[in-house]
Design goal:
Blueprint lengths: L1 H10 L2 H28 L2 H25 L4 H31 L1 H29 L9 H4 L9 H20 L15 H19 L11 E2 L3 H4 L6 E4 L4 E4 L9 H12 L5 H13 L4 H26 L13 H15 L5 H20 L13 H12 L4
Parallel strand pairs: 1-3
Antiparallel strand pairs: 2-3
Helix pairs in contact: 2-5, 4-5, 7-12, 7-15, 8-10, 8-11, 10-11, 11-12
Length: 398
């Protein structure tokens, strides 16, 4: 009995309490270190080497695991985890009170220390997982540099030709698509087939232009709660911890879904930058053998260039072609109106606006914390990149 009391007293001594506090503070300090240091240290050629040669092996196990499941593991963990966190916090508070009441304040401190130590260790592991699954990929060479799409200011004629190229590709692809009774086009195949063909398109783009994407197959997942998720105005999310691409499938809009699927697959294959992911996704679509993919890709480029060319023409005093007056544009107009009617079907009001604003701010803060200056503005690919692509790879400028 005396030995037990002595041992208990030693366990709760002031030096030991201070030591445990320092250990806990050290572990907590390691969380931001684990989150920021890998990206700070692995840059330039080292980051490019990692992304091209190592990332595929780091991500192969998460990719293989989530490919087995047809449903979104991310969605399951978010829904179940949200409830579990509340239950765990309540249980932790109750447990602390119970321990303090039955065994004393010192035992409660030991219990708190044990729990916080486990939480800190999990935080460190999670931060490292994020960095090696996504964070370091922000430092790789931009796609525009890899594909040599930086150039001098081009004249209005080049922009005009690029817009005509995008319009021609868009309407040609649209004529190959079927329509419903409202004259609206839809995706040609099932979601699984879309995902498979998106993998093929992205991988072909990577191989042809030596982009160094992971060859791992990415099974993008439809989210069951897509209708509710749509209020956040987010159409896709890459879960770096599971290596999983999640897609909002509430409305399989032919103008946007191919690019969204390709975009999230590009993230999972090794490009973290939103600008790079969007650019690879769009170019993968226009080079796909699928007409619905090409339609979405050319539509994106056309809409991206239309306003720019209009402003350029006004500045130069040139006359811009009025594509919207062409009969060939009418099917595109019907698809666009159908998408706008879908957006208008959502309730508006303070709560909906709050959800959208919170989502925007959170996403913006996340991108800024990873060195993406401009935050959510980085989703927009500079218009001149597509003009450069047209001039170099379509028109054949050396």
């Amino acid at each position: 009995m005396k030995y037990q009391l002595k041992r208990q007293k030693t366990k709760f001594s002031v030096p030991r309490l201070i030591g445990r506090t320092l250990v806990l503070l050290f572990l907590i300090a390691l969380i931001p270190a684990a989150y920021f240091l890998p990206s700070m240290l692995i840059k330039g050629q080292a980051a490019e080497y990692y992304c091209r040669n190592i990332f595929q092996y780091v991500s192969i196990l998460p990719n293989a695991i989530n490919t087995v499941f047809p449903f979104s593991l991310t969605e399951m963990f978010v829904v179940v985890g949200s409830v579990s966190v509340v239950v765990v916090i309540i249980g932790f508070i109750v447990r602390c009170g119970t321990v303090a009441y039955h065994k004393g304040f010192k035992h409660m401190l030991r219990h708190i220390y044990t729990v916080l130590r486990v939480v800190a260790i999990i935080g460190i592991v999670a931060a490292l997982m994020f960095e090696f699954m996504h964070g370091i990929n922000y430092n790789r060479t931009p796609v525009r540099k890899t594909m040599h799409l930086y150039g001098d200011d081009r004249p209005y004629e080049d922009y005009e030709q690029a817009l005509l190229w995008a319009y021609t590709g868009m309407v040609e692809a649209r004529t190959s698509l079927g329509e419903d009774y409202n004259g609206v086009a839809h995706m040609d195949t099932s979601f699984e087939s879309i995902v498979y063909d998106a993998n093929v398109a992205v991988s072909a783009m990577s191989e042809h232009y030596d982009l160094g994407l992971s060859p791992n197959y990415i099974r993008a997942k439809p989210v069951m709660l897509s209708h509710l998720w749509r209020y956040t105005e987010i159409v896709g999310v890459y879960d770096a911890f599971l290596g999983e691409a999640n897609i909002n499938t509430d409305y399989m809009d032919i103008l946007h879904i191919p690019i969204t699927v390709c975009h999230e697959i590009v993230h999972a294959k090794g490009y973290a930058s939103e600008t790079d992911a969007n650019m690879i996704a769009v170019l993968s679509c226009i080079n796909s053998p699928r007409a619905d993919f090409r339609y979405a890709g050319y539509f994106y480029i056309f809409m991206r260039l239309w306003g720019t060319v209009r402003d350029y023409a006004a500045y130069d005093g040139a006359t811009m072609i009025d594509y919207a007056s062409f009969d060939s544009f009418n099917p595109v107009r019907r698809d666009l109106r159908a998408y706008n009617r879908y957006l208008e079907s959502f309730e508006t009001g303070p709560i909906a606006e709050l959800i959208a604003r919170f989502s925007e701010d959170a996403n913006n803060a996340f991108l800024e914390s990873n060195g993406q200056e401009g935050g959510t503005d980085t989703y927009v690919v500079p218009h001149d990149a597509y003009v450069e692509y047209y001039c170099r790879y379509v028109r054949g400028d050396a």
